[in-house]
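Q: Okay, next protein. This is histidine kinase from Halopenitus persicus. I've checked the sequence twice, so it should be correct. Can you predict the 3D structure?
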Amino acid sequence: MLDYQELFEKIPDGITLHDAEDASVIDANEQFCEMLDYTRSELLELGFEDFILNEPPYTIERAEEYIQKAATDGPQTFEWRDETKAGDPIPVEVHLRQTNLDDRQCILAVVRNITDRKERERELKRKNERLEEFASVVSHDLRNPLNVAQGRLDLVREECDSDHLAAITRAHERMETLIEDLLTLAREGDTTLKLEEVTLADVIARCWQNVETAEATLHIDTTHTIQADHARLQQLLENLIRNAIEHGGADVTVRVSDLVDGFFFEDNGPGIPEETRERIFEAGYSTLNEGTGYGLQIANEIAVVYGWNITVSDADDGGARFEITGVTLNE
């Protein structure tokens, strides 16, 4: 038995050993044999070209190029398509490196079956396509009739005055808010983050200016500089601010301060009953008749994208306290 054989069989991935000059198969572990449904003796009688797909871009010529580069330029990592004994293609990730065995130059190939990964990628792509289609429908099919209704309302105001017009205006504003929230949720299908150094206090102050805060008061007690996507962080904070204003009233006091691995956001409003805390991040859940129920869900979804945790508890003065932890801080 070859000295490396025990190592071969302990590694969960498939492994093949090739001659560096002609790429012939010197050895293969049991995992690789099972992956392609060959016996070891069958594989050793084959050339490497017999178990690759050999369809563009996974051709014999390109495989030979990778093997040559592993011998001359160093380790190579790439995705590939092998072919089972039955002729079925199988997606794999291949790591090639040169090694010596009994003074013989060889190429060691570690081959991982990535079928499950590729299926997850396809499912994520399908999900994002559906979300993009949904966002397009929301943007076009809902905004257009809303714009018409708002235009007609302006014309009615020029012709008459009625207490009903204010109610119609509020209904339009709620529809606009709902559309914006739905679009934001749809965009959360894109988990790409553009991380940069962000001064938390500056972003909070800017968010406060962007939201209608009436007579509310803001106390900023944070000195943290964090790694964050500015746009996503702004969405998270603005939704927390709106939630405080909507539930705490026009004169609510909001305070933001530091935690060891993040920050907290609290108000002196009525707080959130313990029995409803598990539901506040659910889509559409709201304790207010005029609430859309999406604001806190959006905040939570953004935290999830970051890998942060957002929890709710009682503030010292009885209001709601949201703690955002797992944040990367800059020293």
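A: Here is a summary of the prediction. Residues 5-113 form a domain with the Beta-Lactamase fold (CATH 3.30.450.20). The chain has nine helices and twelve strands.
Q: Noted. On to the next one.
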